[in-house]
Design brief:
Helix content: 25-40%
Radius of gyration: 17 Å
Structural class: alpha/beta
Strand order of the largest sheet: 3-4-2-5-1-6-7-8
Order of helices and strands: EHEEEHHEHEHEHEHHHH
Largest sheet: 8 strands, mixed
Length: 242
């Protein structure tokens, strides 16, 4: 089972955007992918071109009933952390809900620390999204209270909305890179095309094929594939098909 947990202790940093784009690109690379929205806002589906009124099947229902968009099975998991059986025996619930053959990307709200803590023991990788701002970087001690940032072996950081035109953004990015080193697995530049695509229910490649975020997201996906051991699986699948 490959479980990628996308959570940041700071809201408004683009966690849902990163979760959606990662799921889409993993599916494009031949992985069988499910994306589970565990937030109250239910905004993950918007990044797949769906309207706010479009309902999703709840996680725990048959995956055959999941809405599949661009190769990604979308499901709603907001009630997951509130289920008594999940609180009592999370291991059996995770084994049931997250099939072994799938890569499951779970988008967890910043304020839902309980769900994040319950899923962490089963996560292959925790993707923590931050922005190059003092407010976002100041939450580093809140990722795992009592544990130094450099000791978070399951965590990979993504710095989102980088704007090299702004001095504070440049300096914050440099500081963050020096602080965590190889734990920084991706950097995504700021581009208004992201919000434009979201507002028009379009994919970024179609609306803005020259967007600077596209190569950044491609590099991030490759880094995550390596961290999760997925690149080998894709290569073997491609080789077997030839």
């Amino acid at each position: 089972m490959t479980l990628i947990l996308v959570h940041s202790p700071k809201g408004g940093v683009g966690t849902t955007f990163i979760a959606a784009q990662l799921a889409l690109r993993l599916a494009q690379h031949g992985q069988e992918v499910a994306a589970i929205d565990c937030t109250y806002q239910e905004s993950l589906k918007l990044h797949f071109g769906l309207r706010p009124a479009q309902s999703l099947a709840n996680v725990g229902d048959d995956y055959a009933g999941a809405l599949v968009v661009s190769g990604v099975a979308l499901m709603n998991g907001y009630k997951l952390s509130r289920q008594n059986d999940f609180r009592d025996d999370p291991a059996s619930v995770v084994a049931t809900l997250f099939p072994q053959e799938r890569v499951t990307v779970v988008d967890v709200a910043a304020g839902d620390r309980e769900l994040k803590d319950r899923l962490m023991p089963f996560a292959t990788l925790h993707v923590c999204v931050l922005t190059p701002t003092p407010a976002a970087l100041s939450v580093l001690p809140r990722i795992e209270p009592g544990t130094p940032t450099v000791a978070l072996t399951k965590t990979g950081f993504v710095l989102n909305q980088i704007d090299d035109r702004l001095r504070l953004s440049r300096h914050s990015t440099t500081f963050f890179r020096k602080l965590i080193g190889e734990m920084l697995i991706g950097m995504v530049r700021r581009d208004e095309a992201v919000n434009e695509a979201l507002g028009m229910f379009e994919g970024i490649p179609r609306l803005a094929p020259a967007s600077v975020v596209l190569p950044d997201l491609a590099e991030l996906t490759t880094a995550i594939e390596h961290r999760c051991g997925l690149s080998v699986a894709v290569a073997e699948t491609a080789g077997a098909a030839q």
